[in-house]
Amino acid sequence: MNQVAFIQQGLTRRYRAEKRFKTYGLAAIVCGITFLVFLLGTTFFNGYTALLQTYISVDITIQESDFDGDLSPESLSKGNYLGIIKRSLRETFPEVTKRKEKAELYRLVSSGAQYDLREKIVENPELIGNTTTFWLLADDEVDVYMKGRIDPSVPEKNRRLKDRSITWIEQLKEQERIEKNFNILFFTNGDSREPEQAGILGAVMGSVFTILVTMLLAFPIGVSAAIYLQEFAKKNRFTDLIEVNINNLAAVPSIIFGLLGLAVFLNFFHMPRSIPLVGGMVLALMTLPTIIISSRAALGAVPPSIREAALGVGASPVQTVLHHVLPLAMPGMLTGTIIGLAQALGETAPLLVIGMVAFIVDIPGSPMDPGTALPVQIYLWADSPERAFVERTSAAIMVLLLFLVAVNGLIVLLRKKFERRW
Amino acid sequence: MNQTSIELSNSVDRNISDDPLNDPNYKTVGEVTSPNAAMTTKNVNVYYGNKQAIFNVSLDVGKNEVLAMIGPSGCGKSTFLRCLNRMNDTIDICRIEGDIRLEGEDIYSRNMDVVLLRARVGMVFQKPNPFPKSVFDNVAYGVNLHGLSNNKSELNDIVEDALKRAGLWDEVSDRLNQPGTGLSGGQQQRLCIARAIAISPEIILMDEPCSALDPIATAKIEELIDELSQHYSICIVTHSMQQAARVSQRTAYFHLGKLIEVGATDIIFTNPLHRLTEGYITGRFG
User: Fold this and answer.
1) B142 to chain A: closest CA residue
2) Do B199 and A313 touch (CB under 8 A)?
3) A418 to chain B: which residues are within 8 Å by CB?
4) Which residues of B touch A231 (CB under 8 A)?
5) Dihedral (C-alpha) B169, B174, B180, B182: value to the nearest 10 degrees?
6) What is the spatial distance between Cα A319 and Cα A5, in angstroms, rounded to a whole number?
7) Which of A17, A398, B53, B264 is the most exposed, having the fewest neighbouring CB atoms within 10 Å of its CB?
8) How do beta strands B121-124 and B203-207 pair?
9) Which of A313, A316, A421 to probe the B interface (max B CBs under 10 A)?
10) Alpha carbons B140 and B160: distance in angstroms, whole number
11) Is B129 touching A (CB cutoff 8 A)?
12) Which residues lie closer than 8 Å to A262 by C-beta, 6 or more apart?
């Protein structure tokens, strides 16, 4: 056999191996995309209904006798609005007379509806004495039924929404007195025990402050540490030890950082619990190794000829780094920062430990106000028994993903700005 | 071996050791000192960790002189060159012994400021390494760094003058704001030379400045070296013996970390005293 024929014989085998390898790669990508589509698909399918919220229209007649005193704003705000709503509901369904049935009737409307009503009356006292149609926030069970997620064929004792309520809802539907509107409350409210009043804004602001603190701490500290270790530190056993430890820290489970934060920031320095500042500090500790490692790699990738050029015209070592090496390494450093911050944004465990899991209704206005974060909110809602929290959990996941895309987009923009043609 | 070297090695001239590589006290052939020296070096030893790279080298650089350093790869000529503006400081394991003086000042003394030294002893590297900035900024960088210009127009003049002296002005005057990395290899190297001369150094060190360039670009750089030698002292390390012969007045031959022979260029290339020098320039090894 001559050599050409021999090589040719092997060629088919080589091409076959190549084809096989390509197929493996393709299969892996298809597999990954399938999982991603499945994940995003179920999240969206479960969550998109949270964008709508059911309201019930009730004719409410407000009488002066509902208030004590002179109808001043103060006396208006002390009115018995729950009683007004109950009365109006009874008027809407005059056939309901039994006490137990009445109690069930009142539950069609959210317990938060009375505060809405109060706000409207205090703003427009001229409504007193008239009959006005108000759209009242419906209870979460009504809302879930309206979105078709309660199956009436399930035995009555196995669902919280009873047959009688369903009849009322159907009646309201016929009279076009019940409808779904855009759920603005979800984007403007803090957390609540009542799903129909629970919103994501508190968690979003908590996450914004937490990530802001993390970014402001981890980026400068990480980059400075990387510059010192890579450019200035003598290579000896001590710096080797530091390097090994940084690499190890990157692999430490995040809850350990949470415990560290609990022990140091809360128990030793007595900082307040549940605040985004401490959360941000803990996440900064967790993010630092990632940023340091990628920043060092980025610095190491800058060609030494640039350093020599700068030193050669008489730049001091610090000038060499600041004027030439750092700008060239910046895109790589920002990539590491994206990875670190994305990780921090999705982190739940360390925040649980430092108390950011508390039930907080108020929306934090600064990093010093108690708050929670998006992943913790998802965890809290996923843990709640109410059926209406399912869609809100998925909606919160979507908000978290959007938030992540926004933060990453910001850093990608920064990176584009620093990127230079070589 | 030709007639001369046999004659010499048999003569009583004890300067010429037949086995310089194993002789720790080997003394360089030829005149290492210069009557009008810009820089003097005495008994320089350089170590990388435990390995000694330069053995007991003494060599002066004369004023307005082009000194060529030749020798086979790994002979230490680049290492020696980098000692002259302390570029070796950046290498952690590198240790330098000996006495190197610029205009009588010990450049390794505590009082010597490295930044100032590098402003006085400029350097051009083997691979053109312009900053990833505009042509103008490349030249202006060193000037601004040392605060050598008082205002914008003075800076413009300095940059223009440096580019003219580097023979690059005509080619880049209309694209000063474009990146220096976009120039051709030869232009980039002349840009690096312009960058070095913009801060008016006393000595320019060139580490194989033409090794990455084509013959036409090389010819331009060589012309430039000729012109520059009227104002500056130039030390050039080169692999090309023709280049050394063309541009230099003095030539130093290095071999395995030892300075074997120094002399006027025309003598070295026509009538070398040491058999190793002769072997190298006649192409028996390299």
Assistant:
1) A313
2) yes
3) none
4) none
5) -120
6) 63
7) A17
8) parallel
9) A313
10) 10
11) yes
12) A353, A354
Q: In this complex, which of A313, A420, A421 lies closest to B118 when CB atoms are compared? A: A313
Q: What's the confidence (pLDDT) of residue B248?
A: 92
CA angle centred on A212, ends A209 and A213, rounded to 5°: 90
Q: Rounded CA gap, A360 and A349, in Å? A: 18
User: Which tokens go with B268?
Assistant: 């070295």
Average of per-residue pLDDT across A91-116: 89
- Cα separation, A300 vs A333, whole angstroms: 11
DSSP SS3 for A58: strand
pLDDT tens track for A142-158: 999 999 888 888 888 88
Q: Rounded to an integer, what distance in angstroms lies between the CA atom of residue B175 and that of residue B187?
A: 13
Reported as half-sphere exposure (CB side, CA atoms, 13 A), residue A12 has a value of 4
Q: How far apart are alpha carbons B147 and B144 in whole angstroms?
A: 5
* Pairwise CB contact (< 8 Å): A305 & B130: no
CATH of A201-418, one of 3.10.490.10, 3.20.20.70, 1.10.3720.10, 3.90.1300.10: 1.10.3720.10
Q: What DSSP line would sit under B101-133, residue for residue?
A: EETTEETTSTT--HHHHHHHEEEE-SS----SS
For A186, residues 6+ apart whose C-beta sits below 8 A from its C-beta are A50, A51, A53, A198, A199, A200, A392, A395
Least confident of A12-16, B21-25, B101-105, B117-121: B21-25
Chain A neighbours among B 91-120 (CB < 8 Å)?
92, 114-116, 118-119
Contact B155, B183 (CB under 8 A): no
Question: Does B145 sit within 8 Å of A309, measured CB to CB?
Answer: no
Q: By C-alpha distance, which of B132, B195, B155 is closest to A418? A: B132
Q: Could A314 and B141 be called an inter-chain contact, meaning their C-beta atoms sit closer than 8 Å?
A: no
Q: Do B119 and A306 touch (CB under 8 A)?
A: no
pLDDT (tens digit, 9 = 90+) per residue, A292-312?
999 999 999 999 899 999 998
Sketch the domain layout of chain A as residue ranges. 3-48, 51-183, 201-418
For the sheet with B94-102, list strands across it.
B51-62, B37-48, B94-102, B105-106
